[in-house]
Every structure is written in C-alpha cells, then in structure tokens.
Prior knowledge:
The protein is 38% helix and 25% strand. The chain is α/β, with parallel strands linked by helices. This is Methyltransferase domain-containing protein.
Amino acid sequence: MVWDPQQYLKFSGHRLRPAVDLLMRIPDFAPRTIADLGAGAGNVTKLIRERWPDARVTGVEGSAEMVAAGRKAAPDVEWSHEDLGHWSPAGRFDLIYSNAALHWLPDHAALFPSLMEKVARGGILAVQMPRNFTAPSHVLIGETALDGPWRSKVEHLVTPPPVEGPAFYHDLLAPMSANIDIWETEYLQVLEGENPVKEWTKGTWLTRYLDVLQGEEKIAFEAAYGMRVAKAYPKNAAGQTLFPFRRLFMVAQRKG
C-alpha cells in the first residue's frame, strides 16, 4: 500500500481520540525504552514523547511517506522505516505501544505472544485496533470488489475480518501477563462533508483496493463504492453523517 498522510489525517481528531484513550489507560511508570509500532505520521508518537520525555522513543513505520511526515511532526524521536511484520529489535522495550496498526498483520495467534516476548519483564504492551470490519463501511468495499469488471484483480483482498474478539486476545496474553485489561468502545463519530465515510475508508481500508487498480477502472470502483456507502450512511437533518466505529483495546503488563 502507498499511504497518503494528508488523506489519513483528514479525520485526525477522530483518529487521535482512541490513541489518546489508550495512552491514558497505561499506568504511571517510568519506561526507559518505548516502541511505537505503526507510528504513522507521528502525531501520536509526539504525545508519547511528551508523556515520557526521558525515555528513548522509537517510531516504527513501514510507509516511507508516513515516516517522512513523522520525522517532521516528531523530530526528537528515533524513526525506523521497516515492515512491522518483520520487526525484530535487538533488545526488549519497557513499553510497546501500537495504535490502529496491528490489524494489518496476519496470524494474531502467533503475533501477539511474539510481541509480548519483546516486552521487558514488568513492562507493558498497549494496543488499539479497529474492529469495525462487519459494518457497512467495510462490508460494502468487499461487495463492490465482487460486483464489477475489476473482480479478478481485487477479489483476493476480500478476506475475513482481521481482528478477533476480546476473549481471543485475553487467552493469548493472560498466561504471560501479571495484569491484563481488554475492552471495546464504539465511538459515534459525527462527520462533515460530502460522502465522508468514503473519504474515511479511502485513508485506510479502501486504499488496498484502489492501489491495485488504475485509470478509469480505479475511478469507477471508487464511485461505485461511494454510491453504496452514501446510501448506508445518509446525512441527518443537520447535514452531518453519523459513523459508529468500534475499536478494541488492550493493556497487558508482562510478568516480572
């Protein structure tokens, strides 16, 4: 995928809120080393740095475009441009934080214990992932992919939801954790503008499909999805679009 920081940050306020909610649920302690996995454009990494100014903070991000934006937003952070799926640090971290990134990686049954192994004893793994993949915003992307001349090019992208339920992650992390807190929140996001749910997904999940297509076919796919999603999320009397969005959170402290 080629990430567009400007498109992603169109709804920066709504995207930032769960990141801050996760950050605020991390207990007060003094981490010396922190990794922000999927640090994106650096707006959250900057807040991590502000909360723990004495820590060495590393932003890990697979998109060159996002790393460039992150270095501008948080120049006092160490930036590592590498694929999260192959992240293999030399040492453990006191805090591994990841906001809206790990759902892009497969095999969570192996991934999450592996990440916990990279947390120092007594340290914390803090993760937030979207769990909105059965909502119309995302289901309609798959329906559009399977209903058009582009099907053969994009149908391989129509996959089951990448994030499991809370109990799945509890069962994975509890044996390694001294304390574990897992919860879900559904945010009722009030969006403005023309077809804002399409614009929202264009900054994330829809990008996977648009990157595969080119020219008129790409334009036609986006338009076909846009018609579907606009009907699913009509404007209210005030001209606003209500977009419920569910997210899964976890804060796990590794056994000492």
